[in-house]
Target: PA4642 family protein
Amino acid sequence: MALSQPATFNEEWSDERVFAYLNQLPPTGVNADFHVLYHAFKHMRPNDYERLLTKFLADGRDLNATNPEGQRIHDVIAQFPRQKDGFLEVLAKFA
Model:
Protein backbone atom coordinates (compact mmCIF):
# COMPACT_ATOMS: atom_id res chain seq x y z
CA MET A 1 0.00 0.00 0.00
CA ALA A 2 1.33 3.42 -0.93
CA LEU A 3 1.73 6.05 1.73
CA SER A 4 -0.22 9.22 1.23
CA GLN A 5 0.43 12.72 2.43
CA PRO A 6 -1.17 13.32 5.82
CA ALA A 7 -4.20 15.59 5.79
CA THR A 8 -3.71 19.10 7.12
CA PHE A 9 -6.54 21.31 8.28
CA ASN A 10 -6.85 25.05 8.86
CA GLU A 11 -3.58 25.61 7.05
CA GLU A 12 -2.91 29.19 5.93
CA TRP A 13 -2.63 29.48 2.15
CA SER A 14 -0.14 31.98 0.76
CA ASP A 15 -1.15 34.36 -2.02
CA GLU A 16 1.18 32.43 -4.30
CA ARG A 17 -0.66 29.19 -3.63
CA VAL A 18 -4.13 30.75 -4.01
CA PHE A 19 -3.27 32.65 -7.17
CA ALA A 20 -1.60 29.62 -8.77
CA TYR A 21 -5.14 28.37 -9.45
CA LEU A 22 -5.53 31.21 -11.96
CA ASN A 23 -3.11 29.34 -14.22
CA GLN A 24 -5.02 26.06 -14.33
CA LEU A 25 -5.44 24.83 -17.89
CA PRO A 26 -8.89 23.48 -18.74
CA PRO A 27 -9.65 20.20 -20.44
CA THR A 28 -10.62 20.44 -24.10
CA GLY A 29 -14.05 21.99 -24.52
CA VAL A 30 -14.20 23.60 -21.07
CA ASN A 31 -14.19 27.36 -20.63
CA ALA A 32 -10.91 28.41 -18.97
CA ASP A 33 -12.58 30.82 -16.54
CA PHE A 34 -15.17 28.25 -15.48
CA HIS A 35 -12.44 25.67 -14.98
CA VAL A 36 -10.48 27.97 -12.67
CA LEU A 37 -13.59 28.74 -10.62
CA TYR A 38 -14.61 25.09 -10.34
CA HIS A 39 -11.14 23.73 -9.62
CA ALA A 40 -10.59 26.35 -6.91
CA PHE A 41 -14.01 25.62 -5.37
CA LYS A 42 -13.14 21.94 -5.07
CA HIS A 43 -9.86 22.63 -3.26
CA MET A 44 -10.24 25.86 -1.27
CA ARG A 45 -12.07 27.12 1.75
CA PRO A 46 -14.46 30.03 1.25
CA ASN A 47 -12.05 32.66 2.60
CA ASP A 48 -9.32 31.55 0.18
CA TYR A 49 -11.88 31.44 -2.63
CA GLU A 50 -12.77 35.05 -1.89
CA ARG A 51 -9.12 36.05 -2.21
CA LEU A 52 -8.93 34.23 -5.54
CA LEU A 53 -12.10 35.90 -6.84
CA THR A 54 -10.74 39.35 -6.03
CA LYS A 55 -7.70 38.72 -8.24
CA PHE A 56 -9.75 36.79 -10.82
CA LEU A 57 -12.04 39.76 -11.41
CA ALA A 58 -9.19 42.31 -11.25
CA ASP A 59 -7.62 40.35 -14.11
CA GLY A 60 -10.80 40.87 -16.14
CA ARG A 61 -11.97 37.27 -16.05
CA ASP A 62 -15.59 36.15 -16.37
CA LEU A 63 -17.42 35.17 -13.17
CA ASN A 64 -20.41 34.16 -15.31
CA ALA A 65 -18.49 31.71 -17.49
CA THR A 66 -20.33 28.43 -18.05
CA ASN A 67 -19.42 24.77 -18.25
CA PRO A 68 -20.27 22.68 -21.34
CA GLU A 69 -23.74 22.05 -19.83
CA GLY A 70 -24.41 25.81 -19.67
CA GLN A 71 -24.17 26.08 -15.88
CA ARG A 72 -22.44 28.96 -14.11
CA ILE A 73 -20.28 28.22 -11.07
CA HIS A 74 -23.16 29.44 -8.87
CA ASP A 75 -25.38 26.70 -10.29
CA VAL A 76 -22.79 23.99 -9.77
CA ILE A 77 -21.95 25.02 -6.20
CA ALA A 78 -25.66 25.03 -5.33
CA GLN A 79 -25.65 21.25 -5.95
CA PHE A 80 -23.26 20.66 -3.02
CA PRO A 81 -25.45 20.94 0.09
CA ARG A 82 -22.67 20.75 2.68
CA GLN A 83 -20.40 23.31 1.04
CA LYS A 84 -22.73 25.64 -0.82
CA ASP A 85 -23.57 28.22 1.84
CA GLY A 86 -20.10 29.64 2.46
CA PHE A 87 -19.17 29.67 -1.21
CA LEU A 88 -22.46 31.16 -2.41
CA GLU A 89 -22.08 33.91 0.20
CA VAL A 90 -18.65 34.71 -1.21
CA LEU A 91 -19.97 34.75 -4.78
CA ALA A 92 -22.80 37.09 -3.73
CA LYS A 93 -20.20 39.66 -2.66
CA PHE A 94 -19.02 39.87 -6.27
CA ALA A 95 -22.45 39.96 -7.95
